[in-house]
Amino acid sequence: MAIETTPLGIVLIILVMGLVTLLTRLGGALLMAYVPLNRRVESFISAMASSVLIAIVVPMAFAGDLGARAALLATLVVMLITGRALPAIAAGLAAAAMVRQLF
User: Fold this and answer.
1) Contacts of residue 97, Cβ cutoff 8 Å, sequence gap at least 6
2) Could you read off the pLDDT of 2-11 as tens digits, one per residue?
3) Buried b / exposed e along 30-45 (16+ C-beta atoms within 10 A)
């Protein structure tokens, strides 16, 4: 099946993607309503969140440009110093912008 990339086709693609996203989020919440939350399940959920973050960050560290690496380093340093995510993200954005502007 192919969808034309006309304006109507693009809107249709966006609507379908939104519907799939909504269904996966609702499906996860509905499934978790039947899972008893104990320490083991909470540990699993916590580990999954960390593994998703690592799956996003590691390829960027290896395949990214100098700006991406500077952003990762700045984010790591600020997060270790402050323990707060928002300043760490801002530092990463600023580092990437500076490095990409200079180099």
Assistant:
1) 67
2) 766 888 888 9
3) eeeeeeeeeeeeeeee
pTM of the model as a whole: 0.59
CA distance 101 to 65: 13
Residue-wise over 57-93: b if at least 16 C-beta within 10 A, else e?
A: eeeeeeeeeebbbbbbebbeebbeeeeeeeebeebbe
Domain locations in the chain as residue ranges: 1-35, 51-103
Neighbours of 95 (CB within 10 A): 21
Amino acid at 28: G
